[in-house]
Design goal:
With 233 residues, this protein is α+β, with helices and mostly antiparallel strands. It folds into two domains: 2-89, no CATH class; 95-205, no CATH class. It is elongated. It starts with a helix and ends in a 28-residue tail after the last helix. Strands 1-2-3-4 form a four-stranded mixed β-sheet, sandwiched between helices. β3 (130-136), α5 and β4 form a beta-alpha-beta unit. It has helices at 2-29, 33-55, 58-89, 95-101, 139-156, 176-184, 192-205, and strands at residues 108-115, 121-127, 130-136, 162-167. The protein contains seven helices and four strands; from the N terminus they run ααααβββαβαα. α1 crosses α3 and α2 packs antiparallel against α3. Residues 210-233 are annotated as: Disordered. Keywords: Membrane, Transmembrane, Transmembrane helix.
Length: 233
């Protein structure tokens, strides 16, 4: 029992330090984060306390309001922290892959299935919406990569819908912070077994980057592919 308490005490400072670090990082991009969180907490608590006085149970509703105030503040903090993180990652090579890694259950993602020496890259995600090809890089160059990859998909899994998205802030592009939402809004047309079968067929096909180790998350700027490395297909 003592060991469990000691482990819990050691973990708590780590969690608090991580929260504090996240708050500092978020505040750099979102100067109003403190005021927003305070306002959410106070308003939530105030509403429940007022209801408590109206129905004659201010203590019970006050306690409930306090708990919900912390919960509401935590939710708002999480969303704004995520938005701030996306803002800092925007434009970095490999940023879209980091978002795809955290898209949620039901999706299988494969980073860098196509790439050229200019660091334009296409990632692939497979889910009940079908196959989604996510490109990042120069809009004109990635269109060539997307076209080649879609052609390949149509040869191998012709019965599965293939969507393509270009990450960016220009016209007909999807911003990094909206990438996950955009993908989750795609209509679901495949069943679970169909998704599994699609993944199996794609794995049998092999991927461009299967033999090339890549760092997770955004790639360092200026990173160059080794000579004799993969070329865009």
């Amino acid at each position: 029992m003592a060991r469990k308490d000691t482990a819990a005490d050691a973990a708590n400072p780590g969690r608090l330090k991580q929260i504090a670090l996240t708050y500092k990082m978020t505040r750099r991009a979102d100067k109003k984060i403190g005021l927003v969180l305070a306002a959410v907490g106070i308003v939530t608590f105030g509403v429940f306390l007022a209801i408590g006085f109206l129905i004659g149970h201010p203590i019970y509703l006050g306690i409930l309001g306090l708990l919900l105030a912390f919960l509401a503040s935590a939710i708002v903090f999480g969303r704004r922290a995520e938005r701030a993180a996306f803002g800092q990652m925007e434009g970095q090579p490999g940023a879209a892959a980091a978002v795809l890694d955290n898209i949620g259950r039901g999706w299988t993602t494969t980073p860098a299935v196509a790439m050229n020496r200019s660091q334009d890259v296409v990632h692939r995600a497979v889910g009940k919406a079908g196959i989604v090809l996510v490109a990042e890089g120069n809009p004109n160059r990635v269109k060539t990569l997307l076209a080649a990859e879609k052609k390949k998909m149509n040869r191998i899994v012709a019965d599965v819908p293939v969507h393509d998205l270009i990450v960016g802030v220009g016209e007909d592009q999807v911003s990094l912070k909206k990438l996950r939402t955009t993908m989750l809004k795609l209509p679901r047309v495949l069943s679970g077994p169909q998704v599994t079968a699609t993944n199996d067929r794609l794995k049998a096909m092999g991927d461009l980057m299967s033999n090339m180790p890549l760092p997770k998350g955004p790639m360092p700027k200026g990173m160059k592919l080794p000579k004799g490395g993969p070329k865009a297909r």
